[in-house]
Specification:
globular; alpha/beta; 258 residues; Undecaprenyl pyrophosphate synthetase; 6-stranded parallel sheet; 9 helices; 13% strand; 48% helix; 6 strands
């Protein structure tokens, strides 16, 4: 019976995917999609595998996701690969996770398809990891259709703190007085110093694994984003799930706070 169900799924899911895709109006696709890649460790536990195996399974899903985004004309994707809280994990587990992240970014860079951008508090990351990430990103320079923000060592509160510090340093080094800085302080000015400066805010934020919270992801930028929470762990996230997220997004009337 299980084998029969598996065969039916393998036949019906592609048909359903094509049907969903045809119904989408690509002109209304989100231009910026943020993704919280959650559930790798729980996936590993359910599959009686190591935590590293879970992270590796999740890493293999990333290139698929980027291809799906290209197919629906998304311009920017932000992937949360490592939070500032993750940096407090047990040393061996953290080192294994960082190694998987380094290998993943190197593999994405070698494909040469996407404009990779590193965002996060890199000063909190291991030096060897920063070196490998920068090398991969530097070798990937060039104008490409899809921009991929790699949020590594990222925290929403940390980003806002870093933005305010960078803004103060810039103005004070230019000879502005503190009063001048305070007078110019507004939403638009702070936005210039965010990790995503110059990019559109995310239209849609997807989180896998069934958790229904943002945990600080794109805390500033997601003020008017639409959210989609998927039950599947990240390694099990399918194109069908992605298309469902787009369908849900298309069905909403965005009010932008009004």
């Amino acid at each position: 019976m299980k084998r029969i169900r598996s065969i039916l799924k393998s036949i019906l899911y592609p048909l359903y995917e094509r049907r969903l895709f045809k119904k989408l109006n690509l002109a209304e696709s989100p231009k910026h999609v943020g993704v919280i890649l959650d559930g790798n460790r729980r996936w590993a536990k359910n599959n009686l595998a190591s935590s590293r195996s879970g992270h590796e399974a999740g890493a293999r899903k990333i290139a698929e996701m980027l291809i799906w985004c290209e197919e629906v004309n998304v311009d920017v994707v932000t992937l949360w690969l490592l939070s500032t809280e993750n940096l407090n994990r047990e040393k061996n587990e953290l080192n294994a996770l960082c190694e998987v992240i380094a290998e993943t970014v190197e593999a994405l860079s070698k494909q040469g398809k996407w404009n990779l951008v590193l965002m996060g508090s890199v000063d909190l990351l291991p030096t060897w990891l920063v070196d490998r990430l920068n090398k991969s990103i530097d070798s990937n320079k060039g104008k490409k259709k899809l921009t991929v923000n790699l949020a590594i060592g990222y925290g929403g509160r940390q980003e806002i703190s870093d933005a305010v510090k960078a803004m103060l340093e810039q103005h004070l080094s230019s000879g502005d007085s503190l009063k001048d800085v305070v007078d110019r302080l507004d939403i638009e000015e702070i936005s210039k110093y965010l990790y995503t400066a110059g990019q559109p805010d995310p239209d849609l934020v997807i989180r896998t694994s069934g958790e229904q919270r943002l945990s600080g992801f794109l805390l500033w930028q997601s003020a008017h984003s639409e959210f989609y929470f998927c039950e599947a762990f990240w390694p099990d996230f399918r194109k069908l799930d992605f298309l469902r997220a787009l369908r849900s997004y298309a069905a909403r009337h965005r009010r932008f706070g009004s």
